[in-house]
Design goal:
By secondary structure, this protein is of the alpha+beta class. The chain has six helices and 13 strands. The N and C termini lie far apart (about 45 Å). About 10% of the residues have low confidence.
């Protein structure tokens, strides 16, 4: 009996919130700018979604969500296109991506999955279509979500966990810093306005990257940035998914996105310090 009363109380409170939000939208009337600002606020948008009051349809929400992660995908040499949304299924086409690093595909999975599901929680599944042609050596688009499925995404288990790390915002352009996130030591750097994060591990010498610094290569344009391992002096492209520029090897990138208004880093399941 007590449980039933509690459930009824929660339901009544939720209905009250829904009625209040509906009244707010009605009072705003034709003020499209104000309604759009509400829709762009993560917290308000989530409440509007819960009560079926969001002003944008699912197709628009998914397209906008993909636009927010497209710059991040571009840093990995990849891109995403929305083919359609039908019967709760989002169909995407992922192209490009890192040519040598399987861990880079996991960062794309996490970024795309998270953005789409946050914008459209009502979707049932995400399908990835194969582009017409793939260059040799490039991770195929239909394999980008294979790690998610292997890690149990289809059974409801996440492929990775997101952790708020607002301290990343304190990094200045050209600065490199170390952060402990869920027991994992992460190296983060800022190049211009963009933040990049990598696991603190040099694949060349198998040692920590603590003390690494950003450098601009001679003859390269402004915006070029490589991380130099302080131990073996191997150089890695900080902007393009951590690919080594003077030999074989690859840093392990981690997604950095703004989630619910906070800078956050995703740590894939099974990755630990």
């Amino acid at each position: 009996m007590a449980r039933e009363r509690a459930e009824n109380l929660v339901r009544e409170v939720a209905d009250l919130y829904g009625a209040g939000l509906q009244r707010v939208l009605r009072l705003l009337g034709n003020d499209a700018g104000a309604i759009e600002r509400l829709a762009r606020d993560d917290l308000v948008a989530s409440l509007l979604l819960v009560h079926g009051l969001h002003p944008h349809d699912v197709h628009t929400r998914v397209r906008t969500a993909l636009d927010t992660v497209r710059p991040y995908l571009g840093s990995h040499g990849g891109d995403v296109a929305l083919l359609g949304v039908e019967d709760g299924v989002v169909r995407l086409e992922l192209s490009g991506s890192c040519k040598t690093c399987p861990s880079s595909s996991v960062t794309l999975e996490l970024a795309v999955e998270d953005a789409v599901r946050a914008a459209a929680p009502e979707i049932v599944s995400i399908e990835v279509a194969q582009p017409p042609a793939e260059s040799a050596g490039v991770i195929s688009a239909d394999s980008l979500f294979s790690r998610v499925h292997a890690n149990g995404q289809q059974s409801g288990q996440p492929a990775g966990n997101w952790f708020a790390v607002p301290e990343l915002g304190e990094l200045r352009p050209g600065e490199v810093g170390g952060f402990a996130i869920a027991g994992l030591v992460v190296l983060a750097c800022r190049v211009g306005d963009n933040l990049f994060a990598y696991r603190d591990h040099c694949p060349s010498c198998d040692r920590s990257l603590a003390g690494a610094a950003l450098h601009r290569r001679v003859g390269y344009p402004v915006g070029d940035a490589v991380l130099r391992c302080p131990n073996c002096l191997a150089h890695f492209d900080a902007v393009r998914a951590g690919a080594r520029v003077d030999g074989d090897g690859h840093l392990e990138p981690l997604p950095v996105l703004v989630r619910s208004g906070e800078l956050s880093v995703a740590v894939p399941v099974g990755v630990s310090g």
